[in-house]
Amino acid sequence: MTVPSAAPETIALVVVGAHLSGMPLNRELQALEATLMRATRTAPSYRFYALAGTVPPKPGLLRVAEGGVGIDVEVWSLSPAAFGLFVSRIPSPLGIGTLTLEDGSSAKGFLVEAVAVEGARDISEFGGWRNYIASLTPVDAAV
Questions:
Q1: Rounded Cα gap, residues 131 and 7, in angstroms
Q2: What angle do CA 5, 20, 65 make, to 5 degrees?
Q3: d(CA 7, CA 114)
């Protein structure tokens, strides 16, 4: 089952970090006239990591076989052309794959290459990027 789109000619995109509403890269979605469809959570099949050396700070979502948790996400709707342009700009080690949401539906969304989480801080316990960012001191947030 896939996430229903706002219109038949759109593609749903799940964002987990710096592209969330109010976060530093959300302007990229707005510039592409993306529409926020809903806030939800992933299925409990993922681990969540703070990626080192990313500016602005970004997380990595990794699907795991066991020990996963649900992570807070937003589902946005983009035209196919906007989706293609957006995806073409995603830097390594991030990419787009198919995410499973808590209701059993699926949609395209951000995932991270497994090699990128080696040595990265596992922040799954926070349940989402906003909670993690809120936990940081101003000095930590600049790292």
A1: 31
A2: 80
A3: 34
CATH fold of 11-131, please?
A: Hypothetical upf0131 protein ytfp (3.10.490)
DSSP string, 86-107: HHHTPPTTEEEEEEEBTTS-EE
Q: Within a 13 Å sphere around the CA of 47, how many CA atoms are in the beta-carbon half? A: 15
pLDDT in tens, the chain (143 residues): 444 444 569 999 999 999 999 999 999 999 999 999 999 999 999 999 999 989 999 999 999 999 999 999 999 999 999 999 999 999 999 999 999 999 999 999 999 999 999 989 999 999 999 999 999 977 555 55
Given the structure tokens 């995806």, which residue do they identify?
87
Number of H helices, E strands in the chain: 4, 8
Residue spans of the domains in the chain: they are 11-131
- One-letter identity of residue 43: A
Host H or E run for residue 129: helix 129-135
Q: For residue 91, count other CB atoms closer than 10 A to its CB.
A: 8
